[in-house]
Write a sequence for this structure.
């Protein structure tokens, strides 16, 4: 949620910021209209309350009249307050000045490339072909059990997943992060406060009977950890690394990536979260990106770093970068990591503050970033494939997997 005082002071800025995120700038006008109506009624209510307080015991009839009038106005005030909050919650977080303005993912900006693109002197296999021939990924049986967009990871495929998680946890713990295993079900109102469902609930699995939602990523239950709490300035930043399953309907992806397990309804991921001071959040964002790059460089997977334009940020993020790994079979990069600075947008909606050493209260800034999901496994299969159909295990993962090569003849 945005600061209503700042919207009053700079309405044109918020209109442009909203339009840059491909949202309707008229929402800002609606916020100001409801805010003005509410403040006018509030002034009238306060005047009537003051008048009532001055009445003597003999002014019984006058007091009753004021009570009835106040009751009606207070109802109107409450109704307008709810309407105002509903519109405020639809407004996206303005992008930082450093974010390129653009309509959609086609206008994202490549920041850098890393790694040497592998060249093969044999026919390249896709990750789903390698997954099947090496008996690492089974979508056929998962389809019988669960339907489309599910898969079984098995044998060294499962070991690679645990290897990545172990590698990710170890790296983050060495950097001072606190490990956490969060719940995968959260209250619907908490999910709503995160801001990802501002435009609808099509992607979210909802248990209506229990008023609970399945998280779509570990961050969804990690970010609200300090819901309605006030932290101390000298405690910040508070950094967590958490593992969870995530669940997505993938309602808007009909026909996309239907083979393999690149785009699925259920996956697991390791996520990092930080609660920090406002003046430190951009530096913290770069720190998170450096961690993601370090992980990919240690795996020796070619990638490029991309900055999201305003139209591809989503509502909560003020700035966002993706790491996309090279997929030889497709001759292009595919997303494996994402890293966002949500500034104070989610903190306001979740009421997460911190007290300055001077005593002042402010909202924290919240950041999130991918450590690992299942997708790097697919990039490993493709980039480390050999002519005989085997796949070399990245050196950093060999102790966890227990072998150097995954061979079809094992």
């Amino acid at each position: 949620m945005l600061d209503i005082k700042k919207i009053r002071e700079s309405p044109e800025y918020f209109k442009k910021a909203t339009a840059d995120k491909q949202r309707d700038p008229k929402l800002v006008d609606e916020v100001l209209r409801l805010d003005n109506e509410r403040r006018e009624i509030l002034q009238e209510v306060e005047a009537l309350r003051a008048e009532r307080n001055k009445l003597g015991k003999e002014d019984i009839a006058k007091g009753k009249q004021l009570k009835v009038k106040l009751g009606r106005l207070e109802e109107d005030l409450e109704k307008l307050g709810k309407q105002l909050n509903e519109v405020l919650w639809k407004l996206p977080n303005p992008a930082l000045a450093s974010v390129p303005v653009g309509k959609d993912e086609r206008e994202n900006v490549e920041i850098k490339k890393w790694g040497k693109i592998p060249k093969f002197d044999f026919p390249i296999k896709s990750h789903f072909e390698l997954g099947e021939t090496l008996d690492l990924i089974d979508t056929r049986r998962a389809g019988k059990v669960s339907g489309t967009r599910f898969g079984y990871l098995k044998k060294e495929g499962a070991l690679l997943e645990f290897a990545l998680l172990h590698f990710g946890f170890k790296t983050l713990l060495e950097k001072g992060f606190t490990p956490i295993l969060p719940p995968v079900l959260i209250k619907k109102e908490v999910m709503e406060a995160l801001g990802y469902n501002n435009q609808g609930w099509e992607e979210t699995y909802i248990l209506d009977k229990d008023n609970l939602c399945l998280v779509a990523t570990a961050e969804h239950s990690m970010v609200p950890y300090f819901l309605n709490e006030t932290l101390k300035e000298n405690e910040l930043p508070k950094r967590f690394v958490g593992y969870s399953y995530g669940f997505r309907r993938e309602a808007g992806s009909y026909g996309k990536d239907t083979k393999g397990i690149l785009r699925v309804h259920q996956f697991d991921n390791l996520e990092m979260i930080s609660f920090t001071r406002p003046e430190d959040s951009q530096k913290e964002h770069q720190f998170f990106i450096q961690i993601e790059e370090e992980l990919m460089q240690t795996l020796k997977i070619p990638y490029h770093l991309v900055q999201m334009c305003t139209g591809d940020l989503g509502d909560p993020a003020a700035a966002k970068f993706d790491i996309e790994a090279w997929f030889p079979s497709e001759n292009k990069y595919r997303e494996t990591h994402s890293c966002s600075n949500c500034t104070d947008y989610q903190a306001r909606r979740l009421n997460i503050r911190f007290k300055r050493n001077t005593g002042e209260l402010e909202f924290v800034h919240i950041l999130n970033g991918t450590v690992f999901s299942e997708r790097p496994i697919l990039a490993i299969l493709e980039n480390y494939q050999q002519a005989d159909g085997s796949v070399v295990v990245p050196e950093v993962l060999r102790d966890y997997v227990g072998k150097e090569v995954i061979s079809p003849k094992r």
Notes: DSSP finds 13 helices and 18 strands in the chain.
